Amino acid sequence: MSAERVNVGIAGLDDMLGGGLIQRSICAIIGTYGTGKTTFSLEFVWDGLKKGEHVIYISLEEREDRIMTYMKMKGWDVTPFLNKALFVIKLDPTDFNLANNRIKNELPNLISEVKASRVVIDPISLFEDLFPTDSERRQEMFRFIEGLRDKPCTIMMTSETDKDNVFSSRHALIEYLADTVILLRYIRPSDLTDVHLALEVVKMRMSAHSREIKPYEIQQDQVMVYSEANVF
User: Fold this and answer.
1) H helix intervals, 88-133
2) Which domain holds residue 113?
3) Is residue 211 in a domain?
4) Is the predicted pLDDT of residue 232 greater than 70, yes or no?
5) What's the whole-model pTM score?
6) What CA–CA distance (Å, rounded) separates 73 from 156?
7) C-alpha dihedral over 24, 139, 171, 48, to 10 degrees?
């Protein structure tokens, strides 16, 4: 029996994923600045809202009004969904106790309370930054991820890449905990005449998936992943 799928809402990417993310799995979108991590997560949010799902969006970076502005600029009217099907929570990553408590303790209860089927945490790397040591970070993140696996929702987390390694998340941790890892990056031809955006599905548990590197574009109203094209 094939697993139920949840569309990201980006046609070429869903094709690369074999029809979408596996329902109730955890996906990590990893990329450096300007590669569109938040845009990918908002496409995931909007796809769920259009299908009548309830969605939680936790932002550790952008304010709620800016997130609403981004979606409005794409031509999406999310006002009718706000606090009914779409729940946006802005957390201050500099307030350790508040952010840590709300993400680890309140989020699981909120998922159940609003019956959310999709959850976004953007970016999870700022939450990881809260922990002072690698060992504590690994322990707390493992507990957090395992707690979310009991919830009937599909989760997308974004993460910044390590400043010295564009193929790794900042703490080289979330890619091991997530079921699906999608890497966004720049590709610069040797002649330096142009810069391309490219993605690859680095990992996807329990599913066959494309292992090719494919170009994509971030347009005003949508993301285009050219799953039939080559980067060069």
Assistant:
1) 96-101, 107-114, 124-128
2) 5-161+168-225
3) yes
4) no
5) 0.92
6) 22
7) 20
